[in-house]
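Hi! If you just cloned this repository, the fastest way to understand the data is to look at a raw example. We've pasted two of them here, unedited. The first protein comes first, obviously.
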Amino acid sequence: MDGWIPLFRKIMDSSVWKTNPKIAMVWIWCLLKASHEDQKFPFNGQDIELKAGQFITGSRKATEEMPLTRQSVRSAWTY
């Protein structure tokens, strides 16, 4: 993936950053994975339209890309 996202330093002042860095990691990962423009994504023989800011993933893929357990990822998503 190429490109960048704006991320403000003030995030380090948030309660999530200070109390549960795993949730902060998952949130930042989601920001980095999200599409920056509308696009079509092939899935099961059909094109799924993704709007800017959306992405498709699952806990297995997330744990492959982050140093977290699958349970940590699932817990962060339900926070």
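Ok, and the second one:
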Amino acid sequence: MSMSAMAANKIYVTQAGASLVFDVLQDGDGNKVGNSTTASTASGSATNFNIDQVGNSNLITFDIHGDSFTGVFSTTGNSNDIDFNCDSADSTSGCDDVNAVITFTGNSSNIDLDIGLSASGDNADVDIVGASGTDSTVVAATIDGTSAILRLTIDGDSNNYLIDIDGNGDVAGHTLIMTQTGITADVDVVQSGTADNSATVVTTGDSQNIDINQTAGGTITLTTTGSTASAVKTVNINQTGHAVFNTNGTILGQTSDGLNGAGG
């Protein structure tokens, strides 16, 4: 199904069966795919869709029940919301092999992603990309499953990130690759499971608050730059399990200068 609409349109989808292809373009303000109380739903394997919204105060709420999901969400404008759930209420589906790309441009967006809530979501591969100038954005991403990969790249100020990757990491563990550019960011990352995890976080900007908690061992590579002249930058790292904190010299083949920086 392919649809193009203009100005304050509402689309509700309830799909049962395999091999759904869903393509929607909404142009204008106040458009909705689902709403704040009733999400659009698709049940079955091999779901594939592309939802594009251009305008302000638009909303996407979509629940997927089934395996092999491929989807692209794209919003351009201010005060837009994306609420995507995979296996939010149907414990009979596995929510495996999720490949999702979420891109947005504009201020004051809310991105809420939940994969593998009532059943484990295995092999999730998710990209969240915010273009330059995406200020005052909240990104909440929760993934429960094995071998999850989350890539998050956002350029903007006064943003808040809540990242929680849980479940058995499998042999490869979970992987987070995050690049944040902008001032007054609040970054909260939690990785847990039974295998080694990997978190690579690069932040550039002033007055940031960064908290990373990682259990069951793993690797955290954190690079943070920015002035502390006007406000203190706070970094908290908590690792449990078989983790190694490399402060200086060469450990396990890696060379580091440890906590090497300048400023307040």
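That's it. A detail worth noticing about the second one: The radius of gyration is 19 Å.
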